[in-house]
Specification:
Blueprint (H helix, E strand, L loop, with lengths): L8 H15 L16 H10 L5 H8 L1
């Protein structure tokens, strides 16, 4: 996906929730940088609600 406008946290969270998570049918690792529009606490919660959260993710997240 290429997005050529300004990206907001709200837009990214909506895309993550409605497009990315439903597309992942098996175990995947999602790697993100520290961009300001990646609200990690919200994305963590979405992954937990979607049952895609793992403890190993949490360990990587803390590094």
């Amino acid at each position: 996906m290429v997005y050529k406008e300004s990206l907001t946290s709200d837009f990214f969270v909506e895309w993550f929730k409605t497009q990315l998570l439903p597309a992942l049918k098996t175990f995947h690792v999602i790697v993100m940088d520290n961009a300001s529009f990646h609200p990690k606490n919200i994305l963590d919660e979405l992954c937990i609600q979607d049952n895609t959260f793992s403890y190993s993710y949490r360990l990587i997240h803390q590094i």
